[in-house]
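User: Design a sequence. Structure:
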């Protein structure tokens, strides 16, 4: 289905929980007010929504959180969505801490790809930023994903004065392991509203000093807006997601389903549509809500405007 700006909306990000096993300082440093389980949308209802979405041409689904692997049955949900006629891809975004223990069941369920969030390669820094995580468990998760043969990407959010000195280390990590590393510009969401991000313009300039042979890679790596670079003859790529300095809203292809059953047309704005009442009806009622959300998508986010952004929740509450 196309929105009012002519963009094809074919991708839905689905948050299955607002809970997480980490307390990253730029996301939920003090935790969050936990939502009662009864207010979290059921897997059965998520599948019904995906069935309705597939009928509108939304064929690619991303499972997110919070941390999706802390919710029991995540692999079963992946399998159910994969079985919907018209579904092309089901992928997962995770912090990687529990990934090794779930990798086999996720692959058996038909998972197409996994994105692993990792902001530092230094164990001490990792403990500081996450406040409770183990980088060894994340590395085990990365290894298990690579061994499975599934498409694997690393998501890194560079922050000035914290990990901006590791950008070249991440590039070496990408080329040594034959993996995609994506640098995502810090967005002013939740606790990160006062954070100091690093522009992807600076990142690519820094990388070219060590990797002058970097060339644009125009091959398709996924469903997102990343621009990729590689080195001829080497596996692995560097991706840049320039949410702040390279606004890509003209090619936006997504809507979001929050863990509490709201359809969110744009990450930046508070506006969302409660889909739960439609679940008491048939698939036509669900489609109407999805159509309304797609039609109401704004032309561009407002993160660079003052005042602009109206959603002040954390990323875990909105859905990663």
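Assistant: Done.
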């Amino acid at each position: 289905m196309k929105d009012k700006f002519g963009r094809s909306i074919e991708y839905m990000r689905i948050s299955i929980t607002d809970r997480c096993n980490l307390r990253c300082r730029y996301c939920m440093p003090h935790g969050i007010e936990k939502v009662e389980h009864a207010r979290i949308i059921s897997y059965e209802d998520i599948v019904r929504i995906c069935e309705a979405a597939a009928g509108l041409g939304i064929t690619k689904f991303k499972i997110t959180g919070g941390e999706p692997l802390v919710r029991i049955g995540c692999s079963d949900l992946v399998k159910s969505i994969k079985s919907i006629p018209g579904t092309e891809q089901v992928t997962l975004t995770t912090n990687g801490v529990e990934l090794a223990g779930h990798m086999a069941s996720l692959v058996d369920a038909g998972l197409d790809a996994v994105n692993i969030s990792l902001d530092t390669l230094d164990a001490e820094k990792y403990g500081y930023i996450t406040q409770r995580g183990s980088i060894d468990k994340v590395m085990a998760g990365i290894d298990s994903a690579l061994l499975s043969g599934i498409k694997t990407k690393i998501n890194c959010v560079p922050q000035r004065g914290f990990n901006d000195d590791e950008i070249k280390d991440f590039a070496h990590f990408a080329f040594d392991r034959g993996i995609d590393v994506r640098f995502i510009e810090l967005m002013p969401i939740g606790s990160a509203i006062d954070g100091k991000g690093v522009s992807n313009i600076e990142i690519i300039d820094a990388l070219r000093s060590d990797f002058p042979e970097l060339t644009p890679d125009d091959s398709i790596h996924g469903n997102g807006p990343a621009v990729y670079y590689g080195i001829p003859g080497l596996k692995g790529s560097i991706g840049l997601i320039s949410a702040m300095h390279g606004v890509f809203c003209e090619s936006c292809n997504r809507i979001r389903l929050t863990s509490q059953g709201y359809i969110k047309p744009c990450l930046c704005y508070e506006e969302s549509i409660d889909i739960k009442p439609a679940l008491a009806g048939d698939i036509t009622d669900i489609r109407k809500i999805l159509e309304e959300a797609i039609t109401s998508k704004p032309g561009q986010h407002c993160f660079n405007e003052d005042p602009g952004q109206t959603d002040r929740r954390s990323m875990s509450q909105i859905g990663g």
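The chain has one domain: 11-318. Residues 26 and 192 are 5 Å apart (CA to CA).
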